[in-house]
Fold this sequence. Notes:
The protein is mostly beta strands.
Amino acid sequence: MADLNKVILMGHMTADPELKQTTSGLSVCSFSIGVNRRYSKADQAQQSVDFINIVAWRQQAEFVSRYFKKGSSIIVCGSIQTRNWTDNNGQKRYVTEVVADEVSFGAPAAQNSGDRAPSQGYTPAAYGAPSFNSTGSADFEEIPGDESLPF
Length: 151
């Protein structure tokens, strides 16, 4: 069986993102989002918030730093990564974070992040309200019975 490492999160930015450059010139943006988690305790619905660390690279990093700020609703698709290092005191440190492959707005632009968000959104016509015509249509032909079907 193949391995799978895919994460899809929707939450709110916990702070303004900060764009940095690596020594080789790559853009990187580290930020965290708060994601609501529902659970039940003593047969009553409860809610808690998990704070998830995210890192975005290249164009995704620049996109996040330009259009998102603290409180912005955000959707992140990516994978979980664990890394470790030894700090200045010789202690081994570990971090688990989501590496963002795709980032998008989690709410309409007007509600998302004020003046930093694009001013116009696009909603495809396919997402509009469905319509139904019960008067019949000349586009469809009624088949009299199962015996005339070719299968």
